[in-house]
Design a protein that fits this description.
Layout (H helix, E strand, L loop, with lengths): L1 H5 L6 H13 L12 H12 L15 E2 L6 E12 L5 E11 L4 E2 L2 H12 L2 E2 L1 H16 L3 E10 H4 L10 E8 L6 H16 L2
Parallel strand pairs: 2-5
Antiparallel strand pairs: 1-4, 2-3, 3-6, 6-7
Protein name: GTP cyclohydrolase 1
GO molecular function, one term: zinc ion binding
EC number: 3.5.4.16
Amino acid sequence: MTDTLKSIEPVNQKAIDAMAQFLEALGLDLKKLNMEKTPYRVAAAFGQFFSGLQENPDGEWTDPIITHTDGLVAVRNIRFQSMCEHHLLPFFGTVHIAYYPKNGKISGFGHFVNVVDILSRRPQLQERITEEICQSIVHGIAPQGVLVIVKATHLCLTMRSRLAVDTNIVTAASNGCLCRGSEPYNQAWKMLMEETLYGK
């Protein structure tokens, strides 16, 4: 852990001081508890957690691939972890993407992973990150249609309610010919989520 934190210096001193004040305001004696370095560690970690604020996901689409493909393309099970902006607690899960290329224009699969990574390294809401992934793909490769589904577990829910230990949240965003209610939407949803939701 220490080596990882050293690699992302400098750490914002205002954040370190504020974290120390926050912990002390909660009644923690940092010296007595041997937590003097905790404010630094927390500030360094959150600097990393929110580093996506300084990156533009749309920059991932600068080198498209032109093919003769016009069939449905799916990228499933992109794992992510992010921080809920309401409680600054983690939520994590998987992103599933399906799109119909337009004029054979596609992108390498790694770019979809990178876009998810950038957008997840920000204070987030699951509904918003789902829509932001969808819109980045639309802006980047202009497909005929795109569907993004995110399934996640939120620690702000599961840690605060013993009844929610197995709860997960599913959100979706779509565009173009894959808008909700269309037959292509239903086909894409089934391709992305049938195994995930129903264990088939």
